[in-house]
Amino acid sequence: MAIEDADVRRFVTWKIFPFALVVGTIWYYRQKGVTFKSLKRKLAAIVLANLMARFNKKREIVATKKRLFSNLEEQKTNRSQKLQILEIGVGGGANFTFYPSGSQVVCLDPNPNFKSYIQQSIEESNVEMKRFIQGFAEKLETVEDDSVDSVVCSMVLCSVRDLDKTMSEVRRVLKPNGTFYFIEHVAAKRGTCLHRVQGWLNPIWYCFSGDCQVNKETGKAIDRAGFSKTSINNLNLNTYVFLIRPILWGTATK
Predict the structure, then answer these.
(1) How far apart are CA 221 and CA 248, in angstroms?
(2) Hey, which end of the chain has fewer CB within 10 Å, N or C?
(3) What is residue 143's DSSP assignment?
(4) 229: alpha, beta or left? (left if phi > 0; alpha if psi -120 to 50)
(5) What would the pLDDT profile of 177-201 be if each residue is shown by its tens digit?
(6) Is 154 in contact with 247 (CB distance < 8 Å)?
(7) Average per-residue pLDDT in the chain?
(8) Which residues contact residue 171 at a Cβ distance below 8 angstroms, ignoring those fewer than 6 apart?
(9) Widest CA span in the chain
(10) CA-CA distance, 198 to 243, in Å (whole number)?
(11) How do residues 22-64 score in pLDDT, each as one tens digit?
(12) Rounded to an integer, what distance in angstroms lies between the CA atom of residue 165 and that of residue 23?
């Protein structure tokens, strides 16, 4: 009898209870009018904001971003105005701390749940949010031609659907001589073991990472985008996720 009772308890604990918890959670959020898609976005904002905050604390990343953004202040086309930055895939605003004081940032992201994290980053830095745009890099319809001094992408281009269209939009919104700043993980060199592994695992990674793809040849897309000048560098970052190597960083001038 005692054995049967123990079996029943195990069944309830490990089978019935988890199932009931999942069903109850779904029912609760449906009663609140929360859809699965909106819940997924909330969770994504929590996870990604914290991951990028930790990523930005890595010694190599801090040093690289300081070098990357060191000449942002020089990008102002009108010294009497504030620096105008468009950050694509702004997330929680982890890059704000590297921007010159008083910069005005147009924040673009498809996930509106990042707004609270952006506000926190603004309070911890000396930048201003000019506006938040919920949208995608391939369609910057609400950003005017030749309207921003700089465009920034940080670990974002891995998830865009059309790299060439994105680069075209970046060039369109930049002012003459404006600069595109980027730091992105990209596909490994063709013919290497890592490149083959990235190709094999990319479909699985894409499903579980929220649209991130590890086999994007972002450097080639930047090279063929028609910028007047490009500077692309490699970053040897020791990360436990070997799939998101190598990392490229640099600038491209309109």
Answers:
(1) 12
(2) N
(3) S
(4) beta
(5) 999 999 999 988 898 888 898 889 8
(6) no
(7) 85
(8) 180, 225, 226, 227, 254
(9) 84
(10) 6
(11) 666 666 666 666 566 676 677 777 777 787 888 888 888 999 9
(12) 41
Tokens 């992201």, located at residue: 109
d(CA 106, CA 85): 6
Q: Residue 99's CB: how many other CB atoms inside 10 A? A: 23
Residues in the chain: 254
Of 141, 147, 139, give the one whose Cα is nearest residue 176: 147
For residue 187, with 0-12 CB atoms within 10 Å meaning exposed, 13-18 middle and 19 or more buried, which class applies?
buried
Q: What is the tens place of the pLDDT at every residue in 147-183?
A: 999 999 999 999 999 999 999 999 999 999 999 999 9
Q: Which contiguous run of DSSP H or E holds residue 230? A: strand 229-235
CB of 241 closer than 8 Å to CB of 252: no
Burial, 77: exposed, middle or buried (Cβ in 10 Å; 0-12, 13-18, 19+)? Answer: middle
CA dist 102 → 3, 63, 77, 115 (Å): 70, 22, 15, 19
Q: How far apart are the first and last CA of the chain?
A: 79
Tokens of 63: 């040093």
- Which of 100, 96, 88, 167 has the alpha carbon at shortest distance from 133? 88
Note the pLDDT of residue 169.
Answer: 98
